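Sequence, please.
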């Protein structure tokens, strides 16, 4: 279920643990934190939803006023689920769905994409090295706009790290077994 314009609409998910959607409660907390200082922070924002899974976070961003979300997902089955969720909600536009490797996609996107305000990343369990690789790539990228926030969802027992180039973690939020690490330049 999501909030905002598409509220109370369920999303399709894949069975198993390979793609785990961000829980409704954690997603609500994430968006409350992002809007706590500025309730209009999401209006007109641009997002990257990396390792997008079901697309729940990016769809929630669109539902709450983001004008553009780029979903990047390496699994063909998960990318199909994102497309299905977007169709089921009749999302009219403002999104791009890329089925491909996150690292290669980020490197290919860098020169041609407008600056992003928020990046959400949630690599599959068991792929801890993807955190450092992706955060390092983002730290040297022109994809991040001024004041951009990068959010990494991870197991509470796993620390993705505090510094990656000029990206510095400024907050960790724990909820249940999951944590959100917030980074900015």
């Amino acid at each position: 279920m999501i909030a905002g314009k598409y509220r109370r609409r369920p999303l399709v998910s894949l069975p198993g643990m390979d793609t785990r959607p961000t829980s409704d409660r954690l997603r609500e907390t994430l968006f409350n934190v992002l809007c706590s200082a500025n309730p209009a922070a999401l209006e007109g924002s641009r997002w990257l939803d990396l390792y997008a899974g079901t697309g729940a976070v990016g769809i929630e961003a669109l539902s709450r006023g983001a004008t553009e979300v780029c979903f990047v997902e390496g699994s063909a089955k998960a990318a199909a689920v994102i497309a299905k969720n977007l169709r089921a909600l009749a999302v009219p536009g403002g999104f791009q769905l890329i089925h491909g490797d996150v690292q290669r996609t980020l490197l290919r996107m860098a020169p041609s994409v407008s600056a992003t305000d928020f990046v959400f990343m949630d690599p599959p369990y068991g792929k801890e090295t993807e955190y450092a690789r992706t955060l390092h790539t983002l730290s040297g990228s022109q994809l991040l706009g001024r004041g951009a926030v990068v959010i990494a969802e991870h197991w509470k027992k796993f620390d993705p790290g505090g510094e990656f180039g000029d990206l510095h973690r400024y907050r960790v939020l724990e909820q249940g077994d999951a944590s959100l690490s917030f980074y900015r330049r």
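The CA atoms of residues 80 and 129 lie 25 Å apart.
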